[in-house]
Fold this protein.
Amino acid sequence: MFQHLSGVLDAYPGWLVVACIGTAVLAYFLGCFNGAVVMSRYILRDDVRNHGSGNAGLTNFYRTFGGPLTAAVILSDVVKAVLAVLFSTWIFGILSPQLVPFGKYWAGMFCLLGHMYPCTFQFRGGKGILSGGTIAIMIDWRVALVVWGGFLILAILTRYVSLGSCWAGLSFPFVTAFVYRDVLLVVMAVVIGGLILWKHRGNIQRMVHGTESKFTLHKKRESAAPAQGERAEGPEPEAGGPAQAVEADGTPEESTGHPEEPDGPEAEEHKEERP
């Protein structure tokens, strides 16, 4: 890879720099489009980062809100990663087809940086698992097989999504070294995997202490309804006694002890009958 880079630098000294900078900027701002934050803030009028684990990612969004918008979050995280890698494939392929793997890793690294630390949302983003998994698929099917295979096996067997995520970040550099045997690609893979592990440091601590939440298909409810058989708060009327009238504001009406006098013509008749 170093030989390919030096060859392109000799032939096109400025174009490789332009390609690297342009790809980095585009991939980063694509990553900044965080579906979980956009859907929660601008559609649900809430912020997913104020609930649950505080993470702006798919798992926390599903646990907090659930519903069909979860599919929109998945779609946004997948599409932005696909667009970033496709652009890098095109731009670096123009310079040299042998630079395409470098372009994919380069774009994937900056796309994940944008997803994890978006400048558009106070640098509070997600943990990059869905976008990172999409990038792995776009890079090479062999890389994706190891990363996704281990993730699914661990997540299904233990119901700890974070454990599968840690496997993805840890295995990514090793499978890259096995497939490509290129130092520069391995370095970028280490950065990508390291970012994923760093974002999951809290999950790792909770798994060690046995307090990590397990994944469930049921949405977590913020508040529970009163249990069946529980009585509603407030005083009940005495048994056998008259029901007490209540004003609209909740305060009881005061009883005068005298019957109400009729209004209108009936009142005149009553007045004539009085001695």
